[in-house]
Specification:
By secondary structure, this protein is mostly helical. 64% of the residues lie in helices and 0% in strands. Helix 1 crosses helix 6. It starts with 6 loop residues before the first helix and ends with a helix.
C-alpha cells in the first residue's frame, strides 16, 4: 500500500476509491468542497498538519471571504480523503 502524505495524494485516492465519490451523487459536491480547500492550501499540504486547529483556521479564512461551511460540509467531509487513506494504509 502506498504511503499517502499530501492532501493531493489523499484526495486523488479518495476520488478513485470512495464509492459515493466515484458512483454516487456526492462526487460533484465533494469536488466543489475539496477544491475550495485545495485553492487555499494546495495539493502539497502535508496531511500530518491537518488537525482541528488547522480546520478552525480554514473556517476562519472562509468566513473572512464571506463564505462558510455547513455542519455537514465541515472537517468531516473535507478530511474523508485523509481518514480513508489512514485506514487503507494500516
Amino acid at each position: 500500500m502506498a504511503d499517502y502524505q499530501t492532501w493531493g495524494q489523499c484526495l486523488d485516492y479518495t476520488l478513485k476509491t470512495r464509492d459515493s465519490w466515484v458512483h454516487g451523487n456526492g462526487r460533484p459536491t465533494a469536488i466543489i468542497n475539496t477544491s475550495h480547500f485545495t485553492r487555499h492550501y494546495g495539493r502539497g499540504l502535508r496531511v500530518s498538519k491537518i488537525d482541528q486547529a488547522f480546520m478552525d483556521l480554514y473556517v476562519h479564512e472562509l468566513e473572512k471571504e464571506g463564505k462558510s461551511l455547513a455542519p455537514s460540509t465541515g472537517a468531516s467531509v473535507l478530511c474523508r480523503p485523509c481518514s480513508a487513506t489512514v485506514h487503507a494504509a494500516s
